Amino acid sequence: MEVPKIKVLDEKEKILRTVSKEVTFPLSEKDKKLIYDSIKFLELSQDDEVAQKYHLRPGMGLAFVQMGIPKRIFVIANKDEDTGKFETHIVINPEIISQSEELIYVGEGEGCLSVNRCVEGIVPRYARVTVKYNDIEGNLQTIRVREEIAIAFQHEIDHLNGILFVDRIDKKDPYKNKDQMREL
Ligand code: NI
Fold first, then answer.
1. 72-128 pLDDT, tens per residue?
2. Euclidean distance between CA atoms 12 and 22, whole angstroms
3. d(Cα 30, Cα 135) in Å, to the nearest integer?
4. How far is C-alpha 43 from the chain's CA centre?
5. Dist. CA 142 → ligand 1 center (Å)
């Protein structure tokens, strides 16, 4: 077992505030490799033993820009605690085409591999979103995601637009409108 060598940039890096560029196809072999390495990295980061040994913070999503490459690509790997299996997504050039009215937020607070500090407050997210995107071969796909996967998609799409979750927390009132949203 080898952990892919991936360096995740910290929020102080200016590139994280830029808008990533649309991707054209076919992808280079280098980009494809980085996609699969990123998924492997996220999966291993959610393994307690590996995470401890290699000092990894657990993460379920990673955008290319967090590795210093401002392309509109992100990956998600979410472990199903019951089966131990991963649900993975490779998402390129995403666009939210519809969203629920209902808003949700992560009760314990959202996290990000680029934000290495504790941030309190609510990040309002749509409970469900429909996203149009390209898969790794460039084919157009549409997916409807909900709950924590919907939050992950919105968090990662924000990265592609230079937005970090901390930007969505009201500075003066971090728990603003809490009672109008459902806690996850
Ligand atoms: Ni993040």
1. 999 999 999 899 899 999 999 999 999 999 999 999 999 999 999 999 999 999 999
2. 24
3. 16
4. 13
5. 22
The first and second tokens of residue 116, run together, are 């290495």
Beta-bridge partners for 78: 87
Domain spanning 14-183: CATH superfamily: Peptide deformylase (3.90.45.10)
Ligand 1 centroid to Cα of residue 71, in Å, is: 15
Count of helix runs (H) and strand runs (E) in the chain: 3, 8
Name the pTM for this structure: 0.96
- Ligand 1 center from residue 60 Cα (angstroms): 9
Catalytic site positions: 156
| Neighbouring residues of the ion ligand 1, judged by CB less than 5 Å | 112
Tell me what pLDDT residue 81 has: 85
Residues ≥6 apart with Cβ < 8 Å to 180: 103
pLDDT, mean of residues 154-159: 98
Residue 2 confidence class, pLDDT cut points 50, 70, 90: confident
Quote the ligand 1 centre to 16 CA distance (angstroms): 10
pLDDT > 90? residue 21: yes
Whether omega for the bond prior to residue 70 falls within 30 degrees of 0, making it cis, is no
